Automatic annotation (TrEMBL):
Organism: Ciona savignyi (Pacific transparent sea squirt)
Disulfide bonds: 14-23, 30-40, 51-60, 67-77, 88-97, 104-114, 125-134, 141-151, 162-171
One GO MF term attached to the UniProt entry: Notch binding
GO biological process: Notch signaling pathway
Domain EGF-like: 1-24, 26-61, 63-98, 100-135, 137-172, 174-209
Protein name: EGF-like domain-containing protein
CDD domains: EGF_CA
Amino acid sequence: GACTDGVNSYTCTCTAGWQGTNCDSNINDCAANPCVNGACTDGVNSYTCTCTAGWQGTNCDSNIDDCAANPCVNGACTDGVNSYTCTCTAGWQGTNCDSNIDDCAANPCVNGACTDGVNSYTCTCTAGWQGTNCDSNIDDCAANPCVNGACTDGVNSYTCTCTAGWQGTNCDQDINECSATNNCAVCQNLVPSYFCVCEISSYEGILCTWAVIGTTTYRVPATTTTTSRIAAIAICAGLDEGGGFLGEPLAANLPTILTKVVARSTFVSGFMWLNVVRQSGSTWVYGATGTVATTNFEFEANVLDNCAVMRVSDFKWIIVSCTSFTADILCQRAITGKVVSP
């Protein structure tokens, strides 16, 4: 400082930062705690602040902007004190929003492979499936592939149920009915079905499926199987050209029936339903004709209202239940005189 002389005295005028009689005491510039967020170091007429993390400025009173470096790669940054918080945009995660969320983690593609995107995914469907999640079965019948038939959709497939006279995967191939065994004298294949001229006096009907025996015709081959006599009667009634009725062969024409009809038929069950029922005791009759059948039975049983079928292997009558026995059906009708296709 500067000294001013007096009478037996002096006065010191101190330079900045000093105090005391002789200006030999440093003023504590940190006494007022100027460093808001930091430690103060006293100097001579000065002080120095050492800021805590996140603060800056002479007095450590300015928050450092931790978002200045744009740390949030895919999101918005919110500044803190020596920290920041990222609010990520859709599809991103992580401290700096730099990790893509795996949208395939939940296995959204039901029938296909998943490719992850940003807040999205793409499914590559396996054959037969469609839709965002490959969960919709493609209608393989939409293009109407079954030309002559009904289509049943599958998974990347379809099945055709062909109408009569057609075959093939798409029901577009005509069945050549003339290549199969039939009773036509002259057969001409049509699309579909076929034109058939019957062997005169031997067969009749649109498809020559009725064998002529005397004044009656019998179905060749025998019709499909059923498990009851009533059902057999109904099937015969529904056959072509006005139907027929359950067979009632007489003893006189039975040998001819056995050789001409049975020999040319394929029997699934090995038995034939005929219109034969037990009326009482050991009396058996053919339905409409009333002709009694009392011979060539396998066995007898005095049970009312039972039925009998003929065993094809040895032509013996077998007594069975009318409602629970499986046998092929022999149908008959009077000759119609219709021997060719229309």
